[in-house]
Design goal:
The protein is of the alpha+beta class. It has helices at 52-63, 92-101, 106-113, 137-149, 174-181, 240-248, 309-316, 338-344, 378-385, 437-459, 477-488, 512-522, 529-551, 556-563, and strands at residues 2-4, 13-15, 21-23, 43-48, 68-72, 86-88, 114-120, 130-135, 154-158, 161-168, 192-199, 204-212, 221-224, 227-230, 253-260, 263-265, 276-277, 302-306, 352-357, 366-370, 396-398, 401-408, 422-423, 425-427, 553-554, 576-577. A hairpin with an 8-residue loop joins strand 19 (352-357) and strand 20. Helix 1 runs parallel beside helix 10 (437-459), helix 2 (92-101) runs parallel beside helix 12 and helix 7 (309-316) runs antiparallel to helix 9 (378-385).
């Protein structure tokens, strides 16, 4: 990581206790690249990465009043759904609602592109209801790109970030910098301030705040069988320079892995004997500003098939053909690869596989087989696929593959997702050790909002502490997510469950607006006037209903008669309102 300093200097390397090299606060050259105290920043906030965290972070920073630029390798891949064509689920769906309640984007985009909607756990209590939607990849990405391209205060730029530029803390000498760079994650203290980024082209973008949302691209490596090559996603280059930059600054990096299943040509699948899964009718939108969704009458069907003992034997006999299943790097326990399931549950003869179309028929024929993420060689993948009912003649359009990538120790972060080591540097998404679109989007909106609020305050020469969006566990699942990350760290890719929250009875999908919209609005993060008007209406209706319940008062005997046989009320003679009951 380069540091900007005054006057002439040279690049000095200092060996840390972890074997990393921390670069000093001086850089070769005659002139200072940039001073943090300068008012000549090109942008207030730079967001690195155009995935789900990056989209939410850049939009939130812009809503906070910061001049923001989103830098990503390819503008045409902004909003790409890299893995499954769906949003939400148990726990995850509540996160999407929380992002939407703060005027985020992913819930609205999922509604506009959703092709099948379901409330998971509907037969249980509302605390564990999980909104979920199958989403057309083409529509989602198109709408997200169009929204961001015209978003007030936000610019989009194509480029690959190679380095983050730092200015050292003025009162720190070289010995202090050595000590700070080698500190453990739990004890990390600020040793520098971010002042911008340098692209691989050599271009420097000066900024007051930087948000890193690199997903699986940070030191990414794809595995198919015994083949391994640098990439963050199939066909897209990994971010190698940025990974080294973070190591040089003293960040403690680890490795994690994930995977994606093969893609299938739906025209080659025999659905005739498969159980079908229909969407809910009418569908329940994610966004609190939507009453309906565009494709309510065109919802697609998903189908269920299963792996077979023959498929398991094919994979079991070829474990030596995959380097991805080694145990030295942890993968997602709750979304394991097929190889992991066969090893871990050796007594099971089959595993359920859901065949999920990736969109409307006019956009794609591809099918996502949910449940068989794997990294076997291509010929082995096709061989075991054709042992499954309905897939006897299937055509595989893309093999499944695994991805290993770098992440930081999230205990390096503050509650606003700013790093402890570097002032003004924020991180969100898989770089913090999480997995899933929803977890990434939720971190993105919080990190982007806080970076934007802090940058906007600095632009206005604010001398007091800038307002920040900081949530605790009682505020919702985003608060639980952040608290778990920064206090416990991660040993495997982290995902949200309802069981993680001790406040799940009050942190439900149906009340995210009541919990978070006013709070975000007070910070200037809600631009949609319709959202606030709807919330006013909901709160007014609830207050009226509460008044009616308070006014309806009866004796214990009267309540027993009203509520019917089997109802018992304490017969103490004291009248009780309907609200008490």
């Amino acid at each position: 990581m380069w540091a900007a300093g005054r006057g002439l200097g040279k690049r000095l390397g200092v060996q840390t206790a972890y074997g990393r090299r921390y670069l000093s606060s001086q850089v070769a050259g005659k002139d200072m690249l940039y001073r943090a105290s300068s008012n000549t920043a090109d942008y207030d906030v730079v967001v690195i990465g155009g995935g789900h965290a990056g989209c939410e972070a850049s939009a939130a920073a812009a809503r906070a009043g910061a001049r923001t630029v989103l830098v990503t390798q390819k503008l045409e891949t902004i909003g790409e759904m890299s893995c499954n064509p769906s949003f939400g689920g148990i726990g995850k769906g509540i996160l999407v609602r929380e992002v939407d309640a703060m005027d985020g984007l992913c819930g609205k985009m999922a509604d506009l592109g959703g092709v099948q909607f379901r409330i998971l756990n509907r037969s249980k209590g509302p605390a564990v209801h999980g909104p979920r939607a199958q989403v057309d990849r083409v529509i989602y990405k198109r709408n997200m790109q169009q929204t961001l391209a015209s978003y007030p205060g936000l610019s989009l730029k194509s480029g690959s970030v190679a380095d983050v530029l730092l200015e050292r803390t003025p009162d720190k000498d070289q010995e202090s910098l050595k000590r700070l760079a080698s500190q453990d994650s739990l004890d990390a203290q600020t040793s520098a301030t971010v002042v911008g980024v340098r692209l691989e082209s050599g271009e420097v973008i000066r900024a007051r705040k930087v948000v890193i949302t690199t997903g699986t691209f940070l030191g990414g490596e794809i595995h198919i069988g015994l083949k391994a090559f640098p990439a963050g996603r199939k066909g897209e280059a990994a971010s190698i320079g940025l990974s080294k930059s973070l190591k040089d600054a003293g960040f403690r990096l680890g490795r994690m892995k994930t995977g994606t299943p093969p893609r299938l040509d739906g025209r080659s699948i025999d659905y005739s004997q498969m159980p079908r899964q229909l969407g809910d009718m009418p569908p329940t939108p994610f966004s609190f500003v939507h009453d309906s969704v565009p494709y309510a009458d065109k919802q697609i069907m998903c189908y269920q098939t299963r792996t077979t003992p023959e498929a398991h034997e094919i994979i079991r006999s070829n474990f030596d053909q995959s380097i991805h299943i080694r145990e030295t790097v942890r993968g997602p326990r709750y979304c394991p690869s097929l190889e992991s399931k066969i090893k871990r549950f050796s007594d099971k003869q089959s595993h359920v596989v859901w065949l999920e179309p990736e969109g409307l028929a006019e956009h794609t024929d591809l099918v996502y087989p949910n449940g068989i993420s794997n990294t076997m060689p291509e010929e082995i993948q096709l061989q075991f696929l054709r042992t499954m009912p309905g897939l006897e003649n299937v055509i595989m359009t893309q093999p499944g593959y695994g991805v290993e990538y770098d992440h930081i120790d999230p205990r390096e972060l503050k509650r606003n997702l700013e790093t402890k080591r570097v002032s003004g540097l924020y991180m969100a998404g898989q770089i913090n050790g999480t997995t899933g679109y929803e977890e990434a989007a939720a971190q993105g909106i919080l990190a982007g909002a806080n970076a934007g609020l802090a940058a906007a305050a600095a632009t206005n020469n604010g001398k007091s502490e800038p307002p920040q969006l900081v949530l605790d566990r009682s505020d919702g699942y985003l608060g639980v997510l952040i608290d778990d990350l920064i206090t416990r760290g991660v040993e495997e890719p982290y995902r949200v469950f309802t069981a993680r929250s001790e406040y799940r009875l009050s942190s439900r999908a149906d009340n995210a607006d009541l919990r978070l919209t006013r709070r975000a609005s007070a910070l200037g993060l809600v631009r949609d006037s319709q959202r606030l008007a709807r919330l006013d209406s909901v709160e007014s209706d609830m207050a009226y209903a509460q008044t009616l319940l308070e006014q309806m008062s009866m004796s214990p005997n009267a309540w027993e008669a009203r509520l019917g046989e089997g109802t018992q009320v304490c017969r103490d003679g004291a009248p009780r309102s309907a609200l008490d009951m």
